[in-house]
Amino acid sequence: MSAKTQHNNILLAILGLIIVVVTVGLIGFFTLGKTDDIIQGEVEVSEYRVSCKLPSRLVEMRVKEGDYVHVGDTLAILEMPEINAQQKVAEATEGATEALSSLAEAGARKEQIQSAYQLMQQAMAAEEIARKSYTRMQNLYDEGVMSAQKRDEAFAAFKAAEAQVQVMKSQYELAKSGAREQEKAVARKNAQAAKSAVDVVKSVLREMVQVSNVEGEVSSIYPKVGELVGMGSPIMSISVMSDIWGTFNIREDQLKGMKVGDTFTAYSPAFSKDVKMKVYYIKDEGSYAVWKATKSNGQYDLKTFEVKARFVNKFDGLRPGMSLIVKK
Fold first, then answer.
1. Where are the alpha helices (DSSP H) in the chain?
2. Number of CB atoms found within 10 A of residue 255's CB
């Protein structure tokens, strides 16, 4: 083989290598360089939290996590012995004030005056018991073995009993002296106030039985049976499955003019199908550091926006937390 032939073969080999490299580069540029931007979101639902107005103890749980509940279903039973006692006191006071109101309307007799006196004595005895209870609670609180809440409850009961003594004394004096029109009006108002107090206690007692105000699925239960539940502390969360949407965090250069009311297609991996969605909420995520309009190297910062969209056609099986994929 001549030297010229060898030289030509080498040139052909180099040329072939260059062609292969260029071909691979072009293939890579037109394929790998054209990957779609992926935006991932997830399914979310409204959460309804069940809580109690007053501190109480959980004595029975009627549902468990995963149960589907309807409006009016009983969820949990709570207990607060102090409220039961206050109900009895309020009902007794209501009965006494109504009787005294009737007494003022009819005019006092000897027996009625005696009855008013006995009611006053009962109120005074109750006030003495409440005062002693409060004194004991205060001493225990000073020693550090009693909570401030229990001390305050005893103080409130003592003050209520003290006020009740004044009411009963006034009613007794009213019975002795005979009622005028103004005094009859006072007696009627006292009876109305006592009835309102009973209504307030009954309203609080209704809180001891927690019922569902929404329809949905019990997603979380927080306390265990027997535990104390603080005032306003959540007992459970209910996922309102009828109020469902998708949330996406989208960089502003990927929004492409998206606005409220626009529709787009997302892919649901859980069901291996495309779903149509309609935007109803767009808001920037905010900045957690000092935001600069431009960078020194000519680039610029990009904010992220939270976009919420509802399903145009909802279907069974959607669960909170499921992924939603959008390809830009």
1. 3-31, 81-106, 110-142, 148-177, 181-206, 252-255
2. 15
Measured between alpha carbons, how far is 194 from 179 in angstroms, rounded to an integer? 20
270 membership: H or E segment, kind and range = none
pLDDT tens sequence across 269-301: 999 999 999 999 999 876 654 444 545 555 667
Sort 45 into a burial class: Cβ within 10 Å, 0-12 / 13-18 / 19+. Answer: buried
Judge if pTM exceeds 0.85: no
Question: What values do phi and psi take at 327, rounded to 5?
Answer: -105, 125
Q: How many CB atoms lie within 10 A of CB 283?
A: 9
Percentage of residues in the chain having pLDDT higher than 90? 29
| Beta carbons within 8 Å of 276's beta carbon, 6+ residues apart | 263, 264, 265, 311, 312, 313
Q: Phi first, then psi: what are they for 167, rounded to 5°?
A: -65, -45
Q: Taking a C-beta distance cutoff of 8 angstroms, is the pair 120, 97 a contact?
A: no
107 vs 134: which has the higher pLDDT? 134
The SS3 assignment for 290 reads coil
CA distances from 200 to 149, 152, 168 (A): 20, 19, 21
Contact 195, 220 (CB under 8 A): no
Q: Is 13 helix (H, G, I), strand (E, B) or coil?
A: helix
Distances (CA, A) of 152 to 68, 81, 159, 202: 40, 16, 10, 21
